[in-house]
Amino acid sequence: MNCWKCKQPLENDPAFFCLACKVVQPPGEGTSYFKIMDCDYAFALDTQKLQRRYVQLQRLLHPDNFSQKAAEEQKYSEIQSALVNKAYKTLLKPLSRGLYMLELQGMRIEEGTDSEADSEFLMELMDINEVLNEARTAGEAEQIGRDVQGKLTELTKRIDAALLKQISPPPKRCSPK
């Protein structure tokens, strides 16, 4: 792929800027959110690293930085900035991240489509809440918190393993949404 302005080859993937003339580039077709945000393709990801990358990219790509540039470069900065926002929001939350990973594998599942699982989950939450309300000391409440955190960690590992088992190697590209 070449720069839209100076026609030099773009060296980075994804290429946010041309290294030769320093102008913002249009987004690459179908680049995955994981690649945009420089994250490993995994359900369990480092959200602090994700946030740092988001801030870094928005500092570089925010449309306010290009108000005095050519109209085409302004347009590309708006598109790139919006894409970074969407990638960040999708990867930040476990549910949207998992659904996105399934979508990359060709399985589209809408949020909130399994009412049986939702009711089971709601019952479990009610049970935890009841046990928490019955806790007599701060130590008991903290233990319940540790138990819930342990369960969350275990479920995250199982989801990650299941998603990674589905593909080999992880997809580098997907169709844009």
How would you portray this structure in words?
This protein is an all-alpha fold and 177 residues long. It has one domain (1-112, 160-176): DnaJ domain (Helix Hairpins, Orthogonal Bundle). It is built from six helices and no strands. It is elongated and about 70 Å long. The model is unreliable at 168-177 (pLDDT under 50).
Summarize it.
This protein has helices spanning 33-36, 47-61, 71-92, 94-104, 115-134, 138-166. The protein is an all-alpha fold and 177 residues long.
Estimate nothing, just give the exact number of structural domains. 1
Give the low-pLDDT segments. Answer: 168-177
CATH architecture assignment name: Orthogonal Bundle
CATH superfamily: DnaJ domain
What integer value in Å does the Rg equal? 21 Å
Indicate the CATH topology. Answer: Helix Hairpins
Helix content: 55-70%
Q: How many strands, which pairing sense, and closed or not: the largest β-sheet?
A: none
CATH C-level class: Mainly Alpha
Kindly report how far apart the N and C termini lie: 21 Å
What does the secondary structure layout of this molecule look like, with pairings?
Elements: H1 33-36, H2 47-61, H3 71-92, H4 94-104, H5 115-134, H6 138-166
